[in-house]
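note to self — DONT lose this again. spent like an hour looking for the file last time. sequence + predicted structure for the chain T wanted, 208 res
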Amino acid sequence: MWRSSWRKFLPSLAAALGVGAALAVPAVAATVTAAQYGFSFSLPPRWTQIPLDSKDIGAFISAAAKGDPSMENVLDQQAVQAGKKGLKIFAVGPVSGDFFPNMNIAVASAAGTPTGSAFIDLMTAEVKLTLTEAGAMQLKVVPTHIPLGPAVQATYKLQFNLWSRVFPVYGLQFYLEHGPRLYVITFSALSPAEDRATAQIVDGTWRW
């Protein structure tokens, strides 16, 4: 069922790397290409894509953890979780305190999903219900049109618990159909303005 396909991504809405490890990131914008899913886009400067295949993620974890077993464990859990949730793209920006602003893209089959305005209407209701059940605060779910096409946009706040510290993380999501697939694009940061700035770059450079 298409409902179970996209709902499994919800636990990863704020899939933040909650560690303050130093991470080498490029000073110029990097291009992310997912040929098998038919899209490409540019990341903001100083953002980097984290490859989720086992060989590359292992090298990243070792470098970022810098020999700290607790950090390595956190990063390893994040990578495993991302893979299990079906995330296809995962990227992080420069660390802010204990938090890496991040984005992820999930891709699922759109089989059985309504199309056109029926998709927008149904997803608006479904996303609002499911995010409410997930504990999202300051939730707003609206139909929108972005350079990628018609979409459902969700903005929300979640309480992020890290090492006995609780702090707010803001999320911005887009749900859309393209061809035979459903795409869920999620941005997470410590402020809504940062989410919007990252989304503007990604949306403005996206190519199908």
